[in-house]
Amino acid sequence: MPETSDNATTQPAVAPTAPERAPRVVLVTGANRGIGRAIAERFVAAGDRVATLYRSGDLPDGVLGVVGDVRDSASVDAAFSQVEAELGPVEVLVANAGITRDQLLMRMTDEEFDDVLDVNLKGAFRCVRRASKPMIRLRRGRIVLISSVVGLYGGPGQVNYASSKAALVGMARSITRELGGRGITANVVAPGFIDTDMTRALPEATQASYRAAVPAGRFAQPDEVAAAVEFIASPEAGYISGAVLPVDGGLGMGH
Ligand code: NDP
């Protein structure tokens, strides 16, 4: 439409940054350390009401902590209920809690496989299942599943971990097809190598070889993942769903 109004110059300037928005209730699993902590800090800084389901440790300022374990459906249910009672229904869920139990395939025990799937995949499932009903009632929601570049790239000694992280893509896409018409998005953020306890636990030589494989030539800081999570969970990202957003310095390109 052509601009014909005489007073066009008196219109308020369009802000180049995102508009101010009402605080939302955000639940991040495992915000006591690492990537989850950085994600929680970002949402707090943005003015949101942030809670975490966590097992141990200390929390960033301004985060409501509810002790729980994503391996236990009753614990997840109780944590959501407490957050709902204190802050209101969860509008943004970040399923971040995760573990590794690396082992060569021929030596990997059933327990090592099951333990990783129970936290990384079923833990995310328990949380999204519990989050879905209130989000459907609200007719809005943002679900962010923290996967890994390894989910689609693969990793030696990580058959259990890669399987669990790849499955999160199918989970997000199925949620998108099921709930996409209700104002709910579900996306995957796939970090590469991030400087946390998880990567610090690797032998120095392994860390060096991984660093050399990353086009960016470095590991990322947890807040670089948090920035991607903040964006994909934002109201402005409402038309992005079922996507896999890599934060990996170019490591996984095309995977
Ligand atoms: P950390 O090992 O530093 O932290 C893992 C977090 O998950 C901790 O808060 C831990 O709690 C929590 N957690 C583990 N098991 C459970 C459980 N059963 N119930 C509740 N919380 C649990 O890992 P990162 O911060 O590095 O990783 C966070 C996520 O990002 C994970 O899903 C990981 O797979 C993924 N990721 C990490 C990458 C990296 O390079 N660091 C790369 C790609 C993906 P507690 O402190 O009590 O153990």
TrEMBL record:
**Family annotation (SMART domains):** PKS_KR
Q: Where is this region: Disordered?
A: 1-20
Keyword Oxidoreductase among UniProt keywords: yes
Q: Which InterPro entries match?
A: KR_dom, NAD(P)-bd_dom_sf, SDR_fam
- Keywords, sorted A to Z: Oxidoreductase
Bias category Low complexity: which stretches? 8-19
| Family, similarity comment | Belongs to the short-chain dehydrogenases/reductases (SDR) family.
Classification via NCBIfam families: PRK12826.1-2
The name this protein carries in UniProt is: 3-oxoacyl-(Acyl-carrier-protein) reductase
Organism of this sequence: Cellulomonas gilvus (strain ATCC 13127 / NRRL B-14078)
